Every structure is written in C-alpha cells, then in structure tokens.
Amino acid sequence: MKIAILLFDNFTALDVAGPYEVLSNIPGANIYFTAEKAGLYKNNKGMQISADYSLSDIPDPEILVIPGGFGIDAILGNQNILNWIKAVHEKSLWTTSVCSGALLLAEAGILNGRKATTHWNRVEQLKKYPVEFVNERYVKDGKIITSAGVSAGIDMALYLTGLAFNDKLAQLIQLAMEYDPQPPFNSGSPQKAPKEILELFKSAKASGKK
Amino acid sequence: MKIAILLFDNFTALDVAGPYEVLSNIPGANIYFTAEKAGLYKNNKGMQISADYSLSDIPDPEILVIPGGFGIDAILGNQNILNWIKAVHEKSLWTTSVCSGALLLAEAGILNGRKATTHWNRVEQLKKYPVEFVNERYVKDGKIITSAGVSAGIDMALYLTGLAFNDKLAQLIQLAMEYDPQPPFNSGSPQKAPKEILELFKSAKASGKK
C-alpha cells in the first residue's frame, strides 16, 4: 500500500504527523513524503521534514493525504502540484485532506459538487468553491475524505483505516498510540470555546490562521 | 522562551509533533530540535526530521521535552545524552516527557522518588526504576511533567502551557488546532479497548511497543 503525504513550505506539523502516525502503522503501508522537489520543507515554526520524493517519483499512490497550513495559500496556484493531484486522484483508492488542505483539493476541482470540511477558520474560503461545506470532524463523499482543523487528521486517519482495511486494525493502532484524548480545557471548536477566547483568536488572526 | 525537543533515531512521530504543535504556537517561543549530533533523524517508519542543534548548542532551554519511541532503548545508556539531560534539568523551568521518553528521565535519575507516567505498554519497564507510577494522562511532580503514550503529549503540552503561561493562551492554541477530539473508536487505553484488540496487541507486540 503506497501512501503519499504532500509536503510544502509552511505546512502545519500536526496536519502531517497525525495521519502519518496512524497510517504508517498499517502493516505493509509505505509512506512517501512527496513535494514539488525532493528536499527539506520547513514548517511555519521551524520544524523541517524531509520530502524524499518529487511529484514525478510517486505517480500512483493508493492513498493521498493533503495536509494544510499557512503555506497552502502559496501553492493554490501551483499547476505542477494541481496537475499531480488531479492525476493521482483519477487512480487513487482514497483522496484525503486535513485542515486547509481541502482548499487545494477544491482548487484542483476535485471537490466540485462534493460534501467537504476544513479548518473552522477556513470555511468562508472553502465556500468560494462549488463545494457543500459540512460542519463535521471528517466528511466522506465517495472516495474523498476531508477533515476539520489540524488535530482532526488523527480522527480522519483512524476512520480511513477502518474503511480501507478493517475496524480491528484501526482500534489496534488507536491502542498503540494511546489515543484516549483528555484535553485539559474545552476550547477545541468555535462552538465550545469561551467567547473571550474566540474574540482573542479573531484579534490575533495572524497567529490563528491555519 | 527556549524550548528543546530531543531527537534520536526511531522516535515516534506524534510524540514529537504533538507537543511541538502546541508549544511552537506560544508567542515568543523558540523550539530547538536537539540531538547528540545535528542532522536528520529517522522515525521508525521513515519520516525524517532535522535536528538543527547538537546538545552543546543548547545548554539551557527553559523547557525540555523528551519524546519516546522504539529508539529510546538504544539511547538509555548514552552518557552524552544523559549528562545533557541532567545539566539541563538543573536549570530548566519545566522538564517533560512523552510516552517512553519517561524512561530516559528515569535513567538520568531525575524521576527518583517522583510520581510519573509513561506509555501503558512501558509501565513494567518504568517500575524497574525507583519511580512511583501513576496511571494518569499526564503527571506533574514539581517542575517535572510526564505523559502517557504518544497522543498524550498533546494534552500534556496544553496543560503545561496553562501552567507556564496562562489558561487563556492554552485555550487559544487548542482552538487554533481545533483540538476537539472525536475518535471514531473507543480503543485508546487497555481499560477501554475491546479484549480482543488487547490480545491482538500482545500477539503483535513488536509493532505495538512504543
């Protein structure tokens, strides 16, 4: 099973590492970090992950994962990346995104007429495309699964593992990663966060945009 | 605020990226990926992250994060790393671990007589040290905070952000990363997982040990 995760500068770290942690533990799965050119890619806070493959090296992954991040806007017009995504999607078993990665799928036309989700702070941007936004943690439409912001990629990847393989494998991986979340605060969505925190977010938009 | 995250070969990706995602979003925080020697370090499934600093480059981080992974066993006897951890801990504001990273703190003597936690599958190994194991998601004892397996590093880092800064900042970061977990299965701990899954884990120990 060939799984490609797209890298680009200013990706969000957990968008990448969440699905990676789940999917890389599928027996027989091989993860290919793929970018326009092979090399080191820098997260917006300095973490550097190596993309060992360029787009042309990985023409036919069975699973495609598009993470998000501040850097997504800079590649929305990148025809090399868009063409690769379109070609990969034609043959993929599953095409997925985390967070603002959905915008790249939308720009590639893959979400036209489809149900999808994204980071809560990117919803207006997604709605500019002919996409039906659904406010869920992850959304499946055919072979496309999009997920909400950042940490939602973990939930999406476990769901995908259940679908693409079986629920027992997904549960086994959940147990191995001790994914029994106990957030010390209840502030994980605009609906749940205290109003004051939502206001703080809006006033500090630059640091919040994912 | 100087924050060091230790890297070594065969780290667990989410042990690193979970706390990183939280702590790197603290305004003014600088994360230093630090390893015995600067260079690329390979996760057990192939992801490569760059350690831009060697131990001697970062003698005095205010916050220390020790992630876990298969590779932890190979460095439990590494005197360079152990001595660095001891020296850093003397001056740190907070010394933390994720998953089996607690074993390295234990080996350095830092957990002697302390309460601590680790990945559920590493508990017996931790109990070989003079440490009081506590079965919690994260455990604070003085300025030391240890956390349970893999994904627990996210919860620990939010808790730490609240302690080291303030709860509003932690809530703001939780909102930015849309950390509103909704695992599709309920299998995240040995207590919650179906018996059959726990048996599967034990029989596939090699792939489960974190």
Notes on the protein architecture:
Two copies of one chain form a homodimer. The first copy, chain A, has 210 residues and is an alpha/beta fold. Chain A has a single domain, classed as Class I glutamine amidotransferase (GATase) domain (Rossmann fold). Helices cover 36% and strands 20% of the residues of chain A. In chain A, the strands form three sheets. Chain A has a seven-stranded mixed beta sheet, with helices on both faces. A two-stranded antiparallel sheet of chain A has the order 3-4. A two-stranded parallel sheet of chain A has the order 8-9. In chain A, a hairpin with a 5-residue loop joins strand 3 and strand 4. The radius of gyration of chain A is 16 Å and the shape is globular. Chain A starts with a strand and ends with a helix. The model of chain A has no long low-confidence stretch (mean pLDDT 96). Chains A and B meet through helix 1, strand 2, strand 4, helix 6 and helix 7 of A and helix 1, strand 2, strand 4, helix 6 and helix 7 of B.
What is the global morphology of chain A? globular
CATH superfamily of chain A: Class I glutamine amidotransferase (GATase) domain
Series of secondary-structure elements of chain A, N-terminal to C-terminal: EHEEEEEHHEHEHEEEHHHH
Q: Which pair of chains forms the biggest interface, and how many residues does each contribute?
A: A-B, 70 and 70 residues
Main sheet specs of chain A: 7 strands, mixed
Q: What integer is the average pLDDT of chain A?
A: 96
How many structural domains can be distinguished in the coordinates of chain A? 1
Ends apart, CA distance between termini of chain A? 30 Å
* Count of alpha and pi helical runs of chain A: 9
In percent terms, what proportion of residues of chain A is strand? 15-25%
The amount of helix of chain A comes to 25-40%
CATH class annotation of chain A: Alpha Beta
- Assembly of the depicted chains: homodimer
User: Which runs of chain A of at least 5 residues are low in confidence (pLDDT < 50)?
Assistant: none
- Kindly identify the CATH topology of chain A: Rossmann fold
Strand segment tally of chain A: 11
Helix and strand composition category of chain A: alpha/beta
